[in-house]
Amino acid sequence: MTKLEVLKKYFGYDSFREGQEELIDAVLSGQDALGIMPTGAGKSVCYQVPAMMLPGITVVISPLISLMKDQVGALNQAGIPACYFNSSLSQHEYFEALELARAGEYKIIYVAPERLEIDSFSSIAEECEISFVAVDEAHCVSQWGQDFRPSYLKIHRFIESLPHRPVVGAFTATATKRVRDDIITHLRLSFPKTLVTGFDRPNLYFETHRSLPNRTNFILDYVRTHPNQSGIVYCISRNKVEKLCDALCNAGISATRYHAGLSQEERRRNQDAFIYGDKLVMVATNAFGMGIDKSDVRFVIHNGMPKSLEAYYQEAGRAGRDGLKSDCILLYAAGDVRTNQFLIDQNSNPELSESEQQAIRAKDLERLKLMTFYATTTDCLRDYILKYFGESGCGHCNNCSNCLAQCDEVDVTNAARKLVACVAMTSEKCSQSMLFDFVRGKENEKLEKFHLIDRKGYGCLKDISPKRLKEISEYLLRSGYLKTGDYYTLRLTEKSHDILSETVVIKVTKEQGKREKDKSRTYDNPRLFEKLRQKRSELAKSERVPPYVIFSDKTLHEMASNMPLTESQFMMLSGVGTRKCEKYANEFIPLIKSFITGRE
Ligand code: ADP
Question: How many CA atoms lie within 13 A of 85 on its CB side?
């Protein structure tokens, strides 16, 4: 079989996505591979297709125990013999799977890195031919990332212990050069084919809100106006998860919760309820989501700002893996910065030296600053994200809240210059709110304490509203005319002086008249879609798999639109391979027929 035939037969897709083919070709030709692709880009296909074409077994090393079960379930559904080894298996299950693996029953074996060194597992390695080792979430090998796993550092020993060195592939969504270099070094990749695909996810709509008067009401409204849609709401603390989940449940919304303070049993139950579609909304801390590949998440709302754009894009990117339009909304308030600073200060890793930890902290603070700029910028959000990840940007995407906002351009040159001058006049001692009181000529205990009231400039911007001052100061921080120092003070920079020769024009959002976002989420034959969805749900329940493992929403929409009536038409749908066609065509086609004849 050719690689395209494998793609269609097992996965139901007609063509490869960007990057997949190059990586697969490298692996098939015996070259190591490093694939850096954003969440949802389709990294799994890059190792699952070669696994079906190479002799012997492919071992997939993954840190995500929760994901293994789903991935193996999905592979089995597609007709691929696969199993997994991790701590969730009972001893009996473990030895049974081991026996079958030794007998050559599996093409793909998922394993947690800790298991590699266990004798019983290494016996597979001795008795069977392992032709390919794929390392998923390969950034876990890097101490510079937030997901560092010491057990990843031992992977190369396992590979070297094999009788024949297999081809090694590493896959991650983390793009920084440092992490990439660590992956190559620590996994000992040999002249790997390295492929970095674009980071843009065109189906995702980005939106930010600053200082909403009531974030809970916003979320309630959003969920109510997006019925039957599955989504995740991330909160910054366990306490906030509890409160918000209660508020949603009290309002009759089908919601559940997840955070590290719950028992393992409850976390598993709640996660399953969300994945299997019994609950629509998951309210969670960032403990939730690693390894969740539910493809039909239609929105991810951040009720509070995460600590970096890497974390934000990873979490927000859990929306729309099936390629359908989905929303990523960030609700930001200034207090989020302080909470994150606190969390960064608390963060310590006993495996690192004090100076290494300090270097990591400094980097974390820099990342937090750039995250804050994302939350406050009035320019295109997608452009900001792409540039952050080292791409050339897209200018104006027309698919984010800033591009769709109706803005006025306001010349604030004078006020901006005065604000910078007053930072100097107050000897860089003021936090933002103190400085605003200073320029507006307000009483303020700290200004008095530091004897700043009688300084020149006091009251020089008394007619400007605090909101406008905030917009100006955010602009000055983003553009590097000011920076923040210890105790949240505003400080001058090397660039501050240049403000005297600049014209400062900021974009100010009009409260009214926001342009409509592209609502083209309407699909053909919604009634038929509902019938098909119900059928999928019944099948999923009886087979005990998540609905999207049977067919993605995308496949169901295509089914409702194309209305296939024969097996060969059914086979043409994206996401329908041979096995699924055999298994499900006769379940869905009768529904389509009765819909057409109006007898449904
Ligand atoms: P990643 O691991 O990169 O986050 P996945 O491997 O989970 O992404 O793939 C995301 C989604 O894209 C899955 O639903 C997968 O079936 C789908 N997909 C992968 N490759 C293709 C392709 N060539 N054509 C269409 N859909 C694809």
Answer: 26
